Structure formats: C-alpha cells, structure tokens
Task: inverse folding
C-alpha cells in the first residue's frame, strides 16, 4: 500500500500514537508484521491538539515526508489571557500575570501586528533537538533551553470570538511556525500574558480537515490515495 492518508487526530493522542495505530491496521491488511510497514507523518501535532494529520504510507511516500511537511498551515486557536503556562499550553503550570481586560479592538490590533515575516523563538517544550536531545526533555529536567529564533510568516489572522479571558482566532502560517509562541507573544504585547488553551489544525497545504477521516472509522485505510503529479 502506497499513498497519503488524511486523519482527524483526536485529542489526547500523540502523532506517534496515530502512526502506530495506522501501521498496525495496514500490516493486518497486508499480512505483514507492523515493523515491516512504513508509515510516517508530515508534521507533528501536540497531544492536546486536534485536527489534520497528514500520513504517508509505504516506502515511496515516507521518503517524501520532509517535502510534504513544508506546506503552509491553517489553525483554529483558543488562547486564555491573564496567565502564562510553563509549556505554553494547558498542560503546564500556570502563572498569573495581569487581571487587566483588553478591549476587543486591542486584541484585534495585537493579532494583526504579528502578520508578516518575523523572527520567532520556538517554545522550550518543543521537539527541536539541542545537541542530539529533544528540547522538551531538557526542559522537563529543569535544564536551561535556549533556542535560536527562526524566520516565520503569519499570512493572516482573524479574530472570531472574544469573551474574556478567552480569545478565539484563526491563523494562516508558514511551515515551522509555533502557535504556542505566537500566543505567548500576543499575550506579552497585550501585557496580560496568555497561553494556548486549544488548537485545531484545519489545513496543510492543499489538504483540508473536511477531507480527513477519523481513526474510529473501521474502514479508514480505504481513504489512502496517491498523489497525481
């Protein structure tokens, strides 16, 4: 079996959980051992995030994972104002910053101010490797994590709902953009602090979430398709 499979990742699953589950299903269909089936993904999603995960099935496609991971992406984001989190999301220890309530126009201006190219510092709790070790593993042991800023592009932001302390917005971003860092930067600009409380990926390049299938679909493997070039 060769091709691409679009999965709507459920909350609580790691990207590896999904890969492992799909690998076992493909192996069962092909009468192979799971270790003999190649399955990869084109860009991880945090366990607390939901949405579109692009999987590659078979050796021919897993070789293309780097190519397919470089697409622009769209996210639906919820951030909570007034606190920061040690991990940048709902999983970490919260630290109160301010009880000031920004107006809706302030929030809109803050979002728009990040549109365009900028240098972004990835979160310490990320999968980026530092001297061969994942940054999040160093952070969990209390070791200092210093990551170099990266050039990213925020193509568009759109505020969809604001009910303090929660801000709901959509963003189109370049590959390599960390939404947790974007949220922290917005919170810093507002002077309130903020962390990402929910995240859904709705697009990866030309692939959209409404094209994806769930892991609870008994026949999800039938949705594997090949890229026509």
Result:
């Amino acid at each position: 079996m060769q091709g691409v499979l679009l999965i709507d990742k459920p909350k609580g699953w790691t990207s590896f959980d999904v890969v492992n589950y799909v690998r076992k299903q493909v192996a069962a269909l092909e009468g192979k051992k799971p270790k003999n089936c190649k399955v990869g993904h084109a860009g991880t999603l945090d366990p607390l995030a939901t949405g579109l995960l692009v999987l590659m099935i078979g050796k021919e496609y897993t070789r293309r994972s780097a190519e397919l991971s470089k697409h622009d992406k769209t996210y639906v984001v919820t951030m909570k104002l007034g606190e920061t989190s040690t991990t940048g999301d709902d999983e970490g220890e919260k630290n109160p910053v301010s009880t000031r309530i920004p107006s809706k126009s302030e929030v809109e201006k803050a979002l728009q101010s990040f549109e365009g190219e900028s240098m972004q510092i990835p979160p310490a709790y990320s999968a980026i490797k530092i001297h061969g070790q994942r940054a999040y593993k160093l952070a969990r042991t209390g070791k200092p994590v210093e990551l170099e800023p990266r050039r990213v592009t925020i193509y568009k932001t759109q505020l969809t709902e604001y009910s303090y302390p929660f801000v709901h917005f959509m963003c189109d971003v370049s590959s390599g953009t960390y939404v947790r860092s974007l949220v922290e930067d917005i919170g810093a600009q507002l002077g309130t602090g903020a962390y990402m409380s929910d995240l859904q990926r709705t697009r990866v390049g030309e692939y959209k979430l409404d094209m994806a299938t769930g892991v609870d679909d008994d026949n999800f493997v039938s949705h594997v398709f090949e890229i026509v070039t």
The chain has a mean pLDDT of 91. The first strand starts at residue 3 and ends at 9.
